[in-house]
Amino acid sequence: MEKRYFTIGMAGHIDHGKTSLTKALTNIDTDRLKEEKERQISIELGFAPLYEDQEIQISVIDVPGHERFIRQMIAGVAGIDLVVLVVAADEGVMPQTREHLEILKFLGIKNGIVAITKIDRVDEDFIELVRDDILTELTGTVFEDAPFVLVDSLSKKGITELKELIIDTLKQQDMRDAKGAFRLPIDQVFTVKGQGTVVRGTVYEGTVEEGQLLKIMPKGLEVRARQIQVHHKPAAKAYAGQRAAINLSGVSKEELERGDVLVSTEHFIVTKVVDVAIHVVDKLEHLIKQRMPIKLHIGTTEVMGRIVFFDRNEVKQENGEILCQLRLDEEILAKRGDRFILRRPSPQETIGGGWVIDPRGNKYRFGSQTIEDLKKKQAGSPKERITAALMEAKSLTLSELLKQTSLDEAVLKEQLRDEEFVLYNGKEYTLTLFIREIEEDLIDRLQEYHLQHPMKAGENKAELLQAMQKRYPKGLLDFVIENRIANHVFNRKEQFVSLADFVPHVPKNWAKRTENLLAELQRDQLKTRSLKDYFSSAGIPDSVAMDLKRFLEEQGLIVMLDEQVAYYGTVFHEAVEKLRSGTGSEFEVGEAKEVLGLSRKYMIPFLEKLDALGLTKRVENQRVWK
C-alpha cells in the first residue's frame, strides 16, 4: 500500500489550550518565539509530528487563535486535512471559535473532531452544558456530526483516545493528490547558517525531490531544491499532505515572502482577475458594497483587491451562493477549485469565502447574461472539465482524470473518444492541441539546429527530449517524435533526429575549401599526411574542422585509419579490392605490403581498419578475409 501523508490543524479561541494540547499529543512545544512565550499566545504557525507508521504519517499545525493573528490562522488551515476544534470547558464557545468555524466552512474542510479541553477545571455537569453549547453552535455546519473527546493536557486525560481517533479517522480518508504538479504555498522563509535560504509550507499537491528544478510564483524565479527536510529529518522527497522545509539555491531570503508559491511547472495560472463563487458569513456586521476593497486570503497569499458583482450592488444578508469576480492589486497563483477567504480590511472582519471558478477572468457586462455565463462556467461541461484538467497537467491517466474531473467513469470514457483528446503509451491522455504544439516546437527547434549545424545528421534524440522536458512530459515528447518519424515528418539516423527533407551538407562558405582538401587527399592516394595538415593547407580552422571531419566520414568521403591518418573514400575502397584480389583467403603483413606498395607506417593502420570494419579477422600473424 502506498504511504499517505496528512496534516491536521488545531483551531479555536485564544487561550483555549491548543498549544498545550499539541504538546500533550506530540511532546513538542510549538510556541517558539520570545513574544509567544512572554504573552502565552501563538503568533506564528506551530508545527509538530504527531504519528507515523508504514501506512500513514500525520503532522500537526497549531493555529493562532487571537483575532489579530487571523492571517496566520488562514494560512495554516488552508493546507490541512482534518481539524481539531478546541473549546475550553471553563469558557465554552467564544467569538474566535465562531469565526474559525466560518473560515473552516469556507475552506471546504469537512473532517473534524471537537476536543473539550481543561476538563479538570470544571465539574461534569458544567462539561455537559459546554457540550450542549457546542452542539448548538455546530448545528447546520459540516461539524455537526463531529465526535467529541474530553481531554486535559496537563493530566493527560483523554489524550490517548484523541490521538487514536485522529489516526483512525485519517486512515479512512483519501490523501491529497500526489501525482499532479507539485505546489507548496510558502508560509515561512528563513536562512540557515551555511545552508542559505529555506522555505517551509504544506505540500498542497504533487511531490518534490532533492535536486529538482522549481519555480517561485508569481515572481517567476528559478530555483533548485538542494535539500528537503520533513520534521527536521532529511528526506529525499516530500509528498502531498506533508509539512516540508526546502533549502533552495538560486535565491536569497530577501527575494521571497510568505504567500509566494513553490511549483514544479509554469503551467499554473498567474492572475489578477478571478471568477469566483462565494458565500457570506451568517451575521454580516456591515454591508458588502459593489467594488468595495477586500482582502483575499488564498493558500498563504494575502492580497488586496475589489469585489465586483454582476447582479447586485450590495449584499446585506445572503444565504445562497453569489457568483462574482475579484479584481486584485497584485498577481496570485490560482487554479479552479482553490478555496479562499474574504475579509474586510477596515473594520477588519471575515465577510465570506468560496472557491475559484476560473482563474482567468475577463471583464464582463453587468446583468443576467453574465450570471448565466458564470453558471455554465461554474458547472463546466464534462468536455470542458477534461480539457481544463489536461490544459494544466498536459498529460493524465484515466484514474487521474477521474479524480480531477469528478466525472462518472462511463461519462469520462465517452468524452475521451472526442478527437480533441489523444491516448498515447496505451494509458495516458493529452490534447490534440499539445500534439500540434509540440510538433511545431520540434520543427522550429530542428530547423534552427540544422541552420547552426548543417553538417550533422541531426540532433541527438536524448538532448532533444531533455531540452523540451521543462515544458512537456518526457513520455509525451517521445510519443510525438516517434509518431512523426513513422509519418515521415522527421527522419532518424541512429540516435539522431532531423527534418525529413534535411540533407547534411557543407556550408557554402566552406564548400570550395572542402573540395580543395578532398582533391589534395585524393591526389596523395595511399601515402597521405596527417588530416590536420590537410585542414590547415585548405585554410579550414579548428573550430570547423571537427564537424567537417565527422561529416566527411559519415558521408563516406573519407575513411579514418586512426586518429591522424585519413584516405579519400574511393581510394580506400579501391585499395581494399586490390588487396583482396592480390591475396588468397589468408595473408600476412608482408604480402599486403607487396600488393599495395605501402610501408609498415601505413600498412598496420590500414589492416587494423579492415579488422575494425569486419572485412578481415586477425588470426595470429595472418589476416583471414570474411
From TrEMBL:
<dbReference type="InterPro" id="IPR050055">
    <property type="entry name" value="EF-Tu_GTPase"/>
</dbReference>
<keyword id="KW-0963">Cytoplasm</keyword>
<dbReference type="InterPro" id="IPR027417">
    <property type="entry name" value="P-loop_NTPase"/>
</dbReference>
<dbReference type="InterPro" id="IPR015190">
    <property type="entry name" value="Elong_fac_SelB-wing-hlx_typ-2"/>
</dbReference>
<dbReference type="Pfam" id="PF03144">
    <property type="entry name" value="GTP_EFTU_D2"/>
</dbReference>
<keyword id="KW-0648">Protein biosynthesis</keyword>
<feature type="domain" description="Tr-type G">
    <location>
        <begin position="3"/>
        <end position="174"/>
    </location>
</feature>
<protein>
    <recommendedName>
        <fullName>Selenocysteine-specific elongation factor</fullName>
    </recommendedName>
</protein>
<dbReference type="InterPro" id="IPR005225">
    <property type="entry name" value="Small_GTP-bd"/>
</dbReference>
<keyword id="KW-0547">Nucleotide-binding</keyword>
<dbReference type="InterPro" id="IPR036390">
    <property type="entry name" value="WH_DNA-bd_sf"/>
</dbReference>
<dbReference type="InterPro" id="IPR015191">
    <property type="entry name" value="SelB_WHD4"/>
</dbReference>
<dbReference type="InterPro" id="IPR004161">
    <property type="entry name" value="EFTu-like_2"/>
</dbReference>
<dbReference type="InterPro" id="IPR000795">
    <property type="entry name" value="T_Tr_GTP-bd_dom"/>
</dbReference>
<dbReference type="InterPro" id="IPR057335">
    <property type="entry name" value="Beta-barrel_SelB"/>
</dbReference>
<dbReference type="Pfam" id="PF25461">
    <property type="entry name" value="Beta-barrel_SelB"/>
</dbReference>
<keyword id="KW-0342">GTP-binding</keyword>
<comment type="function">
    <text>Translation factor necessary for the incorporation of selenocysteine into proteins. It probably replaces EF-Tu for the insertion of selenocysteine directed by the UGA codon. SelB binds GTP and GDP.</text>
</comment>
<dbReference type="InterPro" id="IPR036388">
    <property type="entry name" value="WH-like_DNA-bd_sf"/>
</dbReference>
<dbReference type="Pfam" id="PF09107">
    <property type="entry name" value="WHD_3rd_SelB"/>
</dbReference>
<dbReference type="Pfam" id="PF00009">
    <property type="entry name" value="GTP_EFTU"/>
</dbReference>
<dbReference type="GO" id="GO:0003746">
    <property type="term" value="F:translation elongation factor activity"/>
</dbReference>
<keyword id="KW-0251">Elongation factor</keyword>
<dbReference type="Pfam" id="PF09106">
    <property type="entry name" value="WHD_2nd_SelB"/>
</dbReference>
<dbReference type="InterPro" id="IPR009000">
    <property type="entry name" value="Transl_B-barrel_sf"/>
</dbReference>
<dbReference type="InterPro" id="IPR009001">
    <property type="entry name" value="Transl_elong_EF1A/Init_IF2_C"/>
</dbReference>
<dbReference type="InterPro" id="IPR004535">
    <property type="entry name" value="Transl_elong_SelB"/>
</dbReference>
